[in-house]
Amino acid sequence: MIDQTIIETAAASIIKAIGEDPQREGLRGTPRRIAEMYAEIFSGLDQDPREELQVGFEVGHQEMVIARDIPFYSMCEHHLLPFYGVAHIGYIPTGRVVGISKLARVVDILARRPQLQERLTTQIADTIAEVLEPQGVAVILQAEHLCMIMRGIKKPGSNIITSAMRGLFRRSAATRAEFLNLIEGR
Questions:
Q1: How many angstroms separate the CA atoms of 111 and 74, rounded?
Q2: Is 88 noted as a catalytic residue in this protein?
Q3: Is 54 annotated in the active site?
Q4: Please, are residues 80 and 35 in contact by the beta-carbon 8 Å criterion?
């Protein structure tokens, strides 16, 4: 459970620590808004993404299913700055499929936590593999990190790409290539 009272107090302390007055007209209410924002941004901490995949349909489909360009945002756990981008997910069912929106919900739940892009990619793939038990799962995340844009190295426009391949996508270069071609729109 996210404790908004503690966050609000901490936000007021940070505002004071940078030399500002949290009661100044433009900042009045900001600690509360930050607490509410963090409760929303980190709401995935109180959710189990596996629950989203429990309802499926036995349709006998055993070919690739792909959801591409799923927008997401998350917070880098190193600086608590956002990173955002798109997720591409493919899986080869063993006959049971889930509604495509369920894949996007899994991404959202896992992204709404303090995260690393690499871990997020792995968690999405492992969640789908564990619950659906497909022949294979492929996940690719492309993201821009504000911690690389606003501070430190300051490289706007740079994208970080991570992947996690399970089952057939890991074992078969042809399956992996088909997935990559389909997410690129070829």
A1: 5
A2: no
A3: no
A4: no
Q: Residue 67's domain is classified under what CATH number?
A: 3.30.1130.10
Q: Which of 76, 88, 115, 123 is catalytic?
A: 76
| Per-residue model confidence (pLDDT) at position 152 | 87
Active site residue 40: no
Residues 77-87 have pLDDT tens digits of 999 999 999 99
Residue 185 banded pLDDT, cuts 50, 70, 90: confident
**Segments forming the whole domain that contains residue 170:** 55-183
pLDDT at 155 > cutoff 90: no
Backbone Cα Rg of the chain: 19
Residue 147: active-site member: yes
User: What is the chain's length?
Assistant: 186
Structure tokens at 15: 């505002």
